[in-house]
Automatic annotation (TrEMBL):
Cis-aconitate decarboxylase that catalyzes production of itaconate and is involved in the inhibition of the inflammatory response. Acts as a negative regulator of the Toll-like receptors (TLRs)-mediated inflammatory innate response by stimulating the tumor necrosis factor alpha-induced protein TNFAIP3 expression via reactive oxygen species (ROS) in LPS-tolerized macrophages. Pfam families: MmgE_PrpD_C, MmgE_PrpD_N. It comes from Salvelinus namaycush. This is Cis-aconitate decarboxylase. GO terms for biological process: inflammatory response; innate immune response; positive regulation of antimicrobial humoral response; tolerance induction to lipopolysaccharide. It catalyses: cis-aconitate + H(+) = itaconate + CO2. Keywords: Antimicrobial, Immunity, Inflammatory response, Innate immunity, Lyase, Mitochondrion.
């Protein structure tokens, strides 16, 4: 064996045999999860995280009407023994084991790609909230967490995801290899559940390490029915990791550290450079959500679609002006005006789909969302119905689309833009551009807009009194002695 190989072999043995030192990155995460307290939650954190909880519940309830959710629920009910513990979105009287409830509710949350998006790019709430709700259902009545403890655990799960993504420059951009929620989301779920279960410091670290062995899914399954499983598995497997750690299962004490010769979490990123988390006991602890707000979607599609949809909607208004009082902007009249459509968007292969054949592909198609907004002036939940996908006017416009990828338009949700240029049959050119859509973290939805979205989504499956009860429960969550009120509204 060469000296180099002997050195690598010895490094691996050192990691396996030696306990975690208290200055390791992994241990600092365990210390943070175990040690952070409710007083660390500032008014900004409470406000933003409650908005995330409300939005996530709403999109999950609407997602419970989808075919992919029904397939996931059917699988869990038929393949596993009944275990009536944790409630299921949109299914009165239906309960599953905590891990399976976390799974199906996670699937519901991402089934329409309507859930929140952060920067660096991931969907943080869907990986955490279903797991916390399942754990809260699991705990006996005399041990239900307070609303403040629930929000603390939620923020821990969000913070862990954000910190992990900041260990890599690669993670700053729209992903190409792994779907981020399956990487950081699983560890976020594990961290949140470990906190809610009051695990010890070393158990919190082990929960993260166990979760790392349950992480990762390829981007090839984006725009398919399998993509929602990514969020479901992140919620479920993170919860399983925390439960396994709680009964004594151990894993690598340095899984988050960058150690030569043995890949831990660094296996997911080519430029991994971890940093320890600030101890909750030290001054200066500041959650990322304080400074980096969340993006909330106005319609159910990949976040990048919101730039082109808003740019195209502005061109739609110009088209109405061209039509005057004659055509009222209806389908065939718009199509008759348009000769050519040019989209200037970032280069990202999985969201460049000229002729989508399914609702999942349409949610990941610059072309589809631009043409829908050109025809209708907006993109909505109903834009992705099978009937809408097959409209002759839409198909005619799709055939006239070209795409360019300007150098100054990176595949980065914090820096990209969307531009739509329409050349009319008569030669005139109409342009629309969106640099920051309404709902982006730089231009966040108002509380009233977020409530309107929630009422529309939750109202698809719940009666009005339940919908309003959920709004009241979530907005007052930090003041609830226990979260039974929230759980009751969901049941």
């Amino acid at each position: 064996m060469s000296a180099t190989l002997r050195g690598l072999h010895q490094s691996a043995l050192d990691i396996i045999q030696c306990p975690a030192s208290e200055d390791s990155v992994t241990d600092s995460f365990g210390q943070f999860i175990q040690g952070v307290q409710p007083h660390h939650l500032t008014p900004t954190l409470l406000h933003r995280s409650k908005r995330m909880v409300l939005d996530s519940i709403g999109v999950g309830l609407l997602g419970s009407t989808t075919h992919v959710f029904q397939l996931a629920l059917q699988h869990c009910q038929h393949m596993f023994a009944p275990d009536d513990v944790s409630s299921v979105y949109g299914r009165r009287g239906t309960r599953l084991s905590p891990t399976l409830a976390a799974f199906v509710n996670g699937v519901a949350t991402h089934s329409m790609d309507f859930d929140d998006t952060w920067h660096p790019a991931t969907h943080p709430s869907g990986a955490v909230l279903p797991a916390l709700l399942a754990v809260s259902d699991m705990l006996p009545n005399n041990r239900k967490p307070s609303g403040q403890d629930f929000l603390l655990a939620f923020n821990v799960g969000i913070e862990v995801q954000g910190r992990l993504m900041r260990f890599s420059n690669e993670a700053q951009n729209i992903p190409k290899r792994f779907h981020p929620p399956t990487v950081v989301g699983t560890l976020g779920s594990a961290a949140a559940c470990a906190r809610l279960l009051s695990l010890e410091r070393s158990q919190c670290s082990h929960a993260l390490a166990i979760a790392a062995s349950l992480s990762g899914a390829p981007m090839a399954n984006a725009a398919t029915q399998s993509k929602p499983l990514h969020i479901g598995n992140a919620a479920r497997l993170g919860l399983e990791a925390a439960l396994l750690s709680s009964i004594g299962l151990e894993a690598s004490p340095r899984v988050l550290d960058d150690t030569a010769g043995v890949a831990g979490f660094s296996a997911f990123y080519e430029d991994y450079a971890p940093q320890p988390l600030t101890s909750p006991e030290e001054a200066g602890l500041r959650f990322l959500l304080e400074d980096q707000d969340m993006g909330f979607k106005r319609f159910p599609a990949h976040l990048g679609m919101h730039w082109v949809a808003d740019a195209a909607a502005s061109v739609h208004k110009l088209l109405l002006g061209e039509l005057g009082s004659q055509g009222m902007g209806q389908g065939s009249q718009v199509v008759g005006l348009v000769q050519d459509i040019l989209l200037r968007v970032p280069h990202s292969k999985y969201i460049n789909r000229p002729f989508p054949e399914s609702e999942h592909q349409a949610r990941h198609s610059f072309q589809f969302n631009a043409c829908s907004a050109l025809l209708d002036g907006e993109v909505t939940v109903f834009s992705f119905s099978q009937e809408a996908l097959q409209r002759p006017d839409l198909l005619a416009l799709l055939g006239r689309v070209r795409v360019e990828h300007p150098q100054d338009n990176p595949a980065n949700f914090d820096r990209m833009y969307g531009e739509v240029q329409v050349t009319l049959v008569g030669g005139d050119v109409l342009k629309g551009r969106c640099d920051t859509f309404y709902g982006h973290w730089r231009n966040p939805l108002t509380n009233e807009s977020l409530r309107k979205k929630f009422r529309s989504n939750a109202g698809a499956v719940l009666p009005r009194e339940k919908v309003e009860g959920l709004i009241e429960a979530v907005e007052g969550l930090d003041r609830l002695e226990d979260c039974s009120t929230l759980l009751a509204q969901l049941q």
